[in-house]
Amino acid sequence: MAASDVRSMLSNAQELEITVKGRRSGQSRHISVWFVYDAGRIYLLPVKGSDSEWYKNVQANRSVRISVAGKSANSVAKPLTEPRAVKQVIERFNRKYGEEEIQTWYQKLDAALELFVPSDRDYNDLRDSDFER
Predict the structure, then answer these.
(1) Could you tell me which CATH number the domain at 3-116 has?
(2) Which residue from 83, 81, 77 is spatially nearest to 35, judged by alpha carbons?
(3) What are the residue boundaries of the structural domains of the chain, listed by start?
(4) Rounded to 5°, angle at Cα 114 from 112 and 115
């Protein structure tokens, strides 16, 4: 499957799974998250903001594996903490999931992540050693 197929699935999915490396343990951590796919980027909003453990893990190691509909690809995350950038991500989440849902589930809104969607050239079919199964 090509990365373009993964991008197509992202356009229709409500959740995706991310895999990050534990900053202390080095173990793979799998988390199901809401996301927004927009203009070739994936935006994530940690439920507990900068206090979310998986967000802290990404700050230590920006490599992230994204999985949607049983297909996976590697990506690189860019932490966003500048208030204007975080606000833009919140607005995207409000449009996709509804403002009431975001206010209900998200406890702290001080951080977000931007992930780069892999190109066909970068697509990886789960065989690299950066992540354990």
Answers:
(1) 2.30.110.10
(2) 77
(3) 3-116
(4) 135
